[in-house]
Amino acid sequence: MDHQVIILIFAGAVLSVSFAQTRQFHFVNTPLNWRDAQSVCRQNYTDLASIEDTADVDAAIVALSNYTGKAWIGLRDVMVNSWRWSLSDSSFYGDGESTFRNWYPGEPNNLNGQQLCVRFYGSVNGLWDDDDCSVALPFVCYQGKLPFRFD
After folding, report:
1. What Å distances lie between residue 23 and 10, 60, 136, CA to CA?
2. For the whole model, what pTM was predicted?
3. Domain of 72, in residue numbers
4. Is 8 inside any structural domain?
5. CB–CB of 76/133 below 8 Å?
């Protein structure tokens, strides 16, 4: 009986961890503009990285490993101050994901009216700033799955 209880507890722990981990971040060290980076991520993973909270910021920093530059993530301004994630499936996102932002102080500033895409600073605590989408940068993709839901 004791062995059955231990196995049941272990199985429950494994299941709860697997349901909590809905995505994995991948750094692609090939400079591309934002749109081409999005295309590569969609072909090989799920999409450009969406970042829901500080745990995702930390996971993205780990994915960048020793890279200290800037990298595209999946946030883009679709209208004036109307930031949206690349993946449009709203059922994918957690509670805070559509509103979580990690801007560098003074950002976004839309310098010269051309900065509509967001880059991630792996070396500066994962802070973000806006930049011209045509700039070629490495990028962060994620491999994700829809979170398990009891509906």
Report:
1. 22, 11, 25
2. 0.77
3. 24-144
4. no
5. yes
